[in-house]
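S1.2 Input.
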Amino acid sequence: MKPNSLPAFYAACAPSSESAVGVLPPPDMEQGVGHFNVFPLADLRGAPPMTFNRRSYYKITLCRGRSQVECADQAPHVGNNTLFLVTPRVPYRWLPLTEDFTGYSCLFDDAFLLPARTGVVLAELPIFQPGAYPVWDVTEADCAVLEAIFEKMARELTSGYAYKHDLLRTYLWELIHLVQKLQPAPAPLATHSAAERVATQFTELLEGQFPRQSPQPPLRLRTAMDYADQLAVHVNHLNRVLKEMTGHTTTALISRRLTQEAKLLLKQTAWSISEIADSLGFTDVAHFCTFFKRQASQTPGDFRRLAVFGV
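S1.3 Output.
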């Protein structure tokens, strides 16, 4: 089943002629790296019932008020003051059981945290591991602390501060660390399937090539065949596994990560476009420019100019 995308989320939750309440995409994110949004759950009142499916993004939600959360093949969790986590790996559905629910939700993708250059892979954090508890109830005191972080995120998202996205990354890390502290100890992990191991090894190989510290030497692994050879599997098998586990093809995952890194290098380094193309393993600048425009809907030069002027 194809994961629900961010555009699909905003389309389902947009304000309508029947109701002015809804969730809009965040302002000023077009020229940033990755995606982040935070909103009060009250903005979802009147939205259509959520479907049980995987999402293409991460989400951390605090719900005050009785609700039911269904995750993968686990028994539905019904409670109050519920904290739950969503990852691209796990299908879920949230069903409010009262009309006056409150709380907050923030959603983001792995690219949003890349500029922090921490080297941390979101999928490898304890709170996002397959064996970790994705949903549990928290105390009133913990609710207050969590809400304070969500509220300062919401204020900063609409501020005019030039470096607000960097500050939002700091707040998001604060939230992630707090959630990790509050998360119940996981049950013993089940043995990972062969497909999960291949997908994990692919991610480790892909992320192991970043961040780029210098234009030379160029990327060692660039194509689906390169990764399949490194993993000692057939390229069709790798593609099938990744499609099953992530909803994306091998080439799409590689292209997305290359685009993310290209944006970071264009924004944060003084490297020429030719040097960036070399570093990312492109045979020539023209090939890189064509690739970037196809992925980002603008040329590398236009992206860099807009980023410099904060447009």
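S1.4 Remarks. The chain has two domains: 6-182, 194-308.
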